[in-house]
Amino acid sequence: MKKVKKIEDVLELVNSGDTVMIGGFLTCGGPNKIITHLLENKDLKDLTIIANDTGFDSTPGIGQLVVKKCCKKIVASHVGTNKETGRQMSENETEVVLTPQGTLAEQIRAGGFGLGGVLTPTGVGIAEIEEGKDIVEVDGKKFLLEKPLKADVAILNAYKVDTYGNMEFKGSTRNFNMLMAYAADTVIVEADNLVEVGEIDPNHVNIPGLVVDVIIDGKELA
Question: How do residues 128-169 score in pLDDT, each as one tens digit?
């Protein structure tokens, strides 16, 4: 199956009501060009977004999904750099689930690898955090059971991608991109550099192409 697609093909893969994981850490390693194209060409509503953060309200990328009110729910670790996220949260326009970064990472990992959840001591003893969650005791110590996270679609970014989908990340762009690659039904990757199979040193392949469904050549996008 040919994985390299035109950006127009992505419009059919991301739909209102979907749960969408978005890679990146603020402006580092985010699929900003794909998100811009989606916003310019599709009226998306009621998305559940799972991401490390909601970016910025003034720059391209995940933050613009919030600004344009595409989300009904956001699961993230940090929203302080996007004032619109805070406003929507305070005014109950959008449900925002703030999750410790390590817990969020492990919930995504659990979803991708078929685990039943994550046991964490973070939040134990805090009524607001414990509410609705199972408490599990191990060797006399209490833990909260945080359930796995999965998505309909993951939209990622990678420094180098071959035409099969093997991905190489550069520096800190690994971030949540590497975890989310395993935790969604459909995985779309924006390639900063698209190359032929064999042009990535096997020792530098961080994520195998087996988990990738669609590749978009980032250099073809504005």
Answer: 899 999 999 999 999 999 999 999 999 999 999 999 999 999
Give dist(CA 160, CA 167) in Å, integer.
Answer: 6
pLDDT cut 70: percent of the chain above it: 100
The pLDDT tens digits for 11-37 are 999 999 999 999 999 989 999 999 999
**Separation between Cα atoms, residue 53 and residue 123, nearest integer Å:** 20
| E strands in the chain | 4-5, 19-22, 47-50, 71-76, 95-98, 118-120, 135-138, 141-146, 151-162, 167-168, 184-195, 214-217
SS3 6: coil
Q: What angle do CA 16, 21, 23 make, to 5 degrees?
A: 135
Q: Give, as one character, the DSSP assignment of residue 176.
A: H
| pTM exceeds cut of 0.70 | yes
pLDDT of 27 reads 84
Q: Which residues pair with 143 in a beta bridge?
A: 136
Q: Would you give the distance in Å from CA 126 to the centre of its chain?
A: 27
Kindly tell me the sign of the dihedral angle through the C-alpha atoms of 161, 167, 172, 173.
positive
DSSP-derived pairing of the beta strands 167-168 and 19-22: unpaired
